[in-house]
Every structure is written in structure tokens, then in C-alpha cells.
Specification:
4 helices; 4-stranded mixed sheet; alpha+beta
């Protein structure tokens, strides 16, 4: 006895059971997902590993993320393609978040830090963000509305400058209000 059409297509209430489109493993990796953090890609580099069989290419991505309320993170990761490396760097940045004590949209006092050959000086300001490159990106993502930044190092390496900026912001201790 052959089952009728309705019995054959009914597989647990899902008509598209055999069609694998729309089914993803391990969560939603789509770009339509909203995060509580803003992100900015600081650097994407194609890196090469030389093996016996030839060259293997991968991508290294550095990302800064922030919530605009004093939290900032920096992440660097490698992946087979750009999207994978961005996702991995975002996850690393979330794990490396720091909180910056802000006073009126700026830092409470003058700080400086050195990371490898990059040296950064950060000063409180009242007239907007005056900083260049990665210092500006990190300050904006952290929610700073006014800051003066100066690069004193002898490098143009964005990654080291961003690391020095994060190190300087990490060294700030909250100021007790009177």
C-alpha cells in the first residue's frame, strides 16, 4: 500500500528537510547580527607560510572595538579568509576589554606609554579629539569626545601604536571626586 502525498512529505512538520539551505551549525555567523560594540579594522595583512609544497596564504587582522562608554578592546587573529580572521579578532578583542575612567568625555590626567618602538602621550583636552591614526580610532571607540594624542616613537606600525595607546589607557586609575 503506497502512502498518499501528504504522508510522504510530512517529515516532522518541516517541508524543506532535505534542503540544507538555511541550516547552519554553531550559531549565526551572518553580518545581520547586531553587537553592542562598534568595531573598526585597523590593519589587514596577507601573510605567507612557506612549506615543502609551496606557499600557504592566510590573513592577519587587527580590530579595535568599543562601546562608546569607556570600554575598549584590541584583538589580532589569523584566518584562511578575511571574514574568518575578522570574526576571530573580534572575539579576541572582546576577551581583552579594558575600562577607561572618563571624566567629562576625556581622561583625568596626562599619561604616556611605550610598546616596542611606539611611544604615545595622551593629554586631557577640552577641544575635541586631536590625535592621528590608531590613537584617534581607539579614543573614538572608547567614547572620548576630547583628547590630545601625540606619537613620539619612530614607527609607523599601526599595531604597535594601538597597543601603546591601550597600555596608556590601562595605566589610568580612577580619580576620587571630592
Amino acid at each position: 500500500m503506497e502512502p498518499n502525498q501528504n504522508q510522504r512529505d510530512n517529515r516532522g512538520g518541516n517541508e524543506n528537510f532535505g534542503n540544507r539551505r538555511g541550516f547552519r551549525r554553531g550559531g549565526d555567523f551572518g553580518a545581520d547580527r547586531k553587537s553592542e560594540y562598534e568595531q573598526k579594522v585597523l590593519d589587514i595583512a596577507r601573510v605567507t607560510r612557506v612549506t615543502k609544497g609551496g606557499k600557504r596564504f592566510s590573513f592577519r587582522t587587527t580590530i579595535a572595538i568599543g562601546d562608546g562608554k569607556g570600554k575598549i578592546g584590541l584583538g589580532m587573529a589569523k584566518g584562511k579568509d578575511v571574514a574568518q580572521s575578522i570574526q576571530k579578532a573580534f572575539n579576541k578583542a572582546k576577551k581583552n576589554m579594558i575600562t577607561v575612567p572618563l571624566v567629562g568625555g576625556t581622561i583625568p590626567y596626562h599619561v604616556e606609554a611605550k610598546y616596542n618602538s611606539a611611544k604615545v602621550v595622551l593629554k586631557p583636552s577640552k577641544s575635541g579629539v586631536k590625535a592621528g591614526g590608531p590613537v584617534r580610532v581607539v579614543a573614538k571607540l572608547a567614547g572620548m569626545t576630547s583628547l590630545t594624542g601625540k606619537l613620539l616613537g619612530r614607527t609607523n606600525n599601526k599595531i604597535n601604536i594601538a597597543q601603546a595607546t591601550i597600555k596608556a589607557l590601562k595605566s589610568i586609575r580612577p580619580v576620587k571626586s571630592r
